[in-house]
């Protein structure tokens, strides 16, 4: 019989769990619930909540809503979204992750101070990512977003620079970028490690999990950048690692004999119930 073990450290991070719980409570109350953007980058969980009555909308649709409750997901929103909800007189449930909310506040304060010295506020993050859009909003969209080391060439090294990071980015790459800016700058420079330790700490932990099993099945959403990072960590630790989004994607050929051990793990956006369904689909193969 195949031995299947689910990683106890995988699954929703605190911020995502908080947002899911907020959505569930609103739906149970019978409210019409509108979430601005995907509540979580996991197709199966989004589908489950949609089946309970939650509608996914973009921020432009906020202007046309007449009733119901609006949910801001863990990634956070820019100030304009708050203004739109207020103008429409709608109930707001703000489920922005506390770590992201604190980062928004820090960036807003730093931006105001940098204006005094004509400085540049820089965010190491993915352009167009929901969290980054919310962070840029704290700076009237004047922040400079860099995605990789080579992007620092667009900075003016004769002006003050203050660097922050999207919470889910690599702390190692952030340090490299900070060192490169410090080496080039001719003005004032500050940087802050604003990556989330709960998220970035999962990389070494998931590697430790992956090496314990003959085969690893990683469960994640195709839109999740965190899933891509963690799956890559699994592959580095165990070449027999496979990515699935649903139990239906599990393939019999990955398990060449009935006596192997299989580890099932997932991203910070992967619900436990989905990992359990995947694990069960593996158990019944032999």
Described by its quaternary structure, the protein is single chain
Low-confidence stretches: none
- Order of the strands making up the biggest sheet: 1-12-10-11
Number of helices: 10
Identify the overall geometry.
Answer: flat
- DSSP strand content: 15-25%
Radius of gyration: 21 Å
In which range does the helix fraction lie?
25-40%
H-E string: EHEHEEHEHEHEEHEHHEHEEH
How is the main sheet built?
4 strands, parallel
Category by helix and strand content? alpha/beta
* Mean pLDDT metric: 94
Distance between the termini: 7 Å
**How many strands in all?**
12
Write structural notes for this entry:
With 286 residues, the chain is an alpha/beta fold. The protein has 10 helices and 12 strands. It has helices at residues 14-28, 43-51, 79-88, 98-116, 130-136, 171-184, 197-200, 202-210, 225-237, 272-283; strands spanning 3-6, 33-36, 54-57, 69-72, 91-94, 120-124, 144-146, 161-165, 189-191, 215-219, 241-244, 261-266. The strands form 3 sheets. A 4-stranded parallel β-sheet has the order 1-12-10-11, with helices on both faces. Helix 8 packs across helix 9 (225-237). The longest helix has 19 residues, at 98-116. The N and C termini lie close together (7 Å). 42% of the residues are buried.
């Amino acid at each position: 019989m195949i031995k299947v073990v689910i990683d106890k450290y995988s699954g929703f991070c605190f911020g995502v769990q908080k947002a899911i719980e907020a959505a569930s409570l609103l739906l149970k109350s019978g409210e019409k619930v509108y979430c601005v953007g995907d509540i979580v980058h996991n197709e199966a969980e989004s589908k489950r909540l949609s089946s309970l009555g939650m509608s996914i909308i973009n921020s432009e649709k906020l202007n046309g809503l007449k009733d119901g409750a609006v949910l801001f997901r863990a990634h956070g929103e820019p100030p304009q979204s708050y203004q739109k909800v207020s103008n429409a007189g709608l109930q707001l449930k703000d489920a922005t992750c506390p770590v992201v909310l604190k980062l928004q506040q820090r960036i807003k304060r730093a931006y105001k101070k940098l204006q005094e010295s004509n400085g540049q506020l820089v965010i190491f993050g993915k352009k167009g990512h929901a969290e980054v859009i919310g962070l840029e909003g704290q700076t009237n969209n004047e922040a400079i977003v860099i995605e990789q080391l080579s992007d620092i060439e667009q900075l003016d090294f004769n002006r003050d620079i203050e660097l922050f990071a999207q919470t889910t980015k690599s702390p190692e790459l952030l340090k490299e970028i900070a060192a490169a800016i410090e080496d080039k700058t001719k003005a004032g420079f500050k940087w802050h490690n604003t990556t989330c330790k709960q998220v970035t700490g999962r990389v070494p932990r998931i590697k430790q999990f992956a090496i314990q099993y003959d085969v690893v099945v990683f469960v994640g959403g195709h839109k999740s950048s965190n899933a891509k990072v963690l799956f890559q960590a699994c592959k580095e630790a165990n070449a027999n690692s496979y990515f699935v989004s649903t139990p239906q994607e599990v393939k019999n050929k990955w398990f060449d004999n009935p006596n192997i051990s299989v580890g099932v793990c997932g991203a910070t956006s992967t619900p436990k119930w989905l990992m359990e369904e995947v694990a069960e689909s593996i158990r019944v193969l032999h």
